[in-house]
């Protein structure tokens, strides 16, 4: 895993836990600038079980729809994929394409985000990725956090 300063701090706080499958906790901690223990408790209160995955994006979209804030940040789901037009497709059925991480970093150079790819989430702040994900990774969901 690529350790940025923010991620290093979270990973150090995480050492006392016997966790795995906790990318949602780590991403939330980095994105909201809160201690790992606070993020861990927040997600446990929402039904996350230890050493189990959690559908973070769905929960954040519900928080955004309800107009609530999290630790002083307002989450906003950002449209990520697009349906390819019939003129550019070889086949008649719909094709939903997702941008690469490199494209997302170019399109959103500033801001705090939780980024989802298939079966994994991570944080990105001001274009800096807090994970070891490669630039060709396809991104399925993006949640922006703005100060409330």
State the low-pLDDT regions, or none.
none
Radius of gyration: 16 Å
Structural class of the secondary elements? alpha+beta
What is the number of helical segments per DSSP (H or I, 4+ residues)? 5
Principal-axis shape: globular
- Pattern of helices and strands: HHHHEEEHEEEE
Mean pLDDT score, rounded? 90
Cα-to-Cα separation, first versus last residue: 31 Å
Describe this structure in words.
This protein is of the alpha+beta class and 148 residues long. Helices cover 32% and strands 21% of the residues. It has a five-stranded antiparallel beta sheet with strand order 1-7-4-5-6, with helices on one face. The chain has a two-stranded antiparallel sheet with strand order 2-3. The longest helix has 10 residues, at 5-14. The protein is globular, with a radius of gyration of 16 Å. The two termini are 31 Å apart.
């Amino acid at each position: 895993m690529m350790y940025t300063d923010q991620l290093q701090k979270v990973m150090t706080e995480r050492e006392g836990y016997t966790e795995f499958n906790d990318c949602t906790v780590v991403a939330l901690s980095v994105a909201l600038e809160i201690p790992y223990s606070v993020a861990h408790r927040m997600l446990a209160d929402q039904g996350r079980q230890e050493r189990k995955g959690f559908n973070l994006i769905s929960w954040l979209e519900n928080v955004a729809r309800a107009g609530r804030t999290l630790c002083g940040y307002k989450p906003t789901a950002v449209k990520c994929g697009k349906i390819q037009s019939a003129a550019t497709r070889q086949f008649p059925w719909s094709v939903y394409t997702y941008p690469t991480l490199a494209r997302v970093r170019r399109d959103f150079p500033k801001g705090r985000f939780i980024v989802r790819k298939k079966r994994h989430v991570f944080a990105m702040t001001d274009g800096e990725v807090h994970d070891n994900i490669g630039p060709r990774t396809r991104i399925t969901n993006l949640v922006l956090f703005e100060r409330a």
